[in-house]
Amino acid sequence: MTAALLLCGVLLDLWWGEPRRWHPLVGFGHCTAWIERRFNTGNGGVRRLLGVLAVLMLVLPPVLLCLWLVQLPYVGLLVSVLTLWFALGLNSLRAHMLPIFNALEQGDRDKARALTARICSRDEATLDIERSAVESILENGSDAVFGALFWFCIAGAPGALAFRLINTLDASWGYRSERFLHFGWAAARLDDLVGLIPARLTAISYALCGNARLAFHCWRTQAGAHDSPNGGPVMASGAGALAVQLGGPTCYRGIWVHKPQLGEGPAACALDLKRAIALVGRGVMLWLSVILMMQLIGQGWLVWQS
């Protein structure tokens, strides 16, 4: 049943994509902003405590509601598929990246730069378009695709929903700025925890679906230099799988950060955006195939035992 629900959720995401109006995450974003304005106050210790409380307030109610709904006859199956569709961002990833590729192909770098700045928290005037876009695809492949698939397999729709909400909170609050250093601590640490295994499975998937030798080499030798325990394996393996070089000086809100070199080969070019999207797509096909095979083997074993 899990494999069938996964397939339905992925197909629904590819066919329908994100809703253009009334997206649940938009409402969730309004809630996070409202909570943050009222809870993000006091000294460092108080802010950390209030940050933990804010995460619980925003994540637990919808997850518990989902847990109740999926246990209902028939309705539960529909809720499971719709929740996975909500948690997945495969179609969205492609929809955001192809306009950047088209703008680059048409020589309109100003448009490509503006579109890229919308999807990553980097200063528009100084960002490297191709590198930033490829890095965003690889990172979001883990956060918006494989992480949701993993937690759906482990804990069903409530697991996928919890992962997506926690990841969204980290994207909103998980900054090391003065404003969010303490208040966003809980969201950032929880996101690292729930992404620990999915990130490494994503890195393996990138390697198996690309230049495996180089991907595993870059993962082993370069991931530790990255400041994120989960982003390092994902980005290093993805860059190696594509045989491109990522990393380097990056400006975030006026502050320059020297990101470590990831991958080997030439700098990312426009065509690498499509190659990165295709890499994520092949990874999804690999996951679905493996999960289906495991389920068939498990059912065959039960039949043989009986």
TrEMBL record:
Biological processes per GO annotation: cobalamin biosynthetic process
A GO CC annotation given for this chain: plasma membrane
Membrane spanning residue stretches: 49-70, 75-93, 144-166, 284-304
Domain of life: Bacteria
InterPro entries (UniProt xref): Cobalamin_biosynth_CobD/CbiB (IPR004485)
Pathway annotation from the record: Cofactor biosynthesis; adenosylcobalamin biosynthesis
Keywords for this protein: Cell membrane, Cobalamin biosynthesis, Ligase, Membrane, Transmembrane, Transmembrane helix
Subcellular location: Cell membrane
Membrane topology: Multi-pass membrane protein
Family matches, as HAMAP family: CobD_CbiB
Name of this chain's protein: Cobalamin biosynthesis protein CobD
Organism, scientific name: Marinobacterium lacunae
Taxonomic lineage of the native organism: Bacteria, Pseudomonadati, Pseudomonadota, Gammaproteobacteria, Oceanospirillales
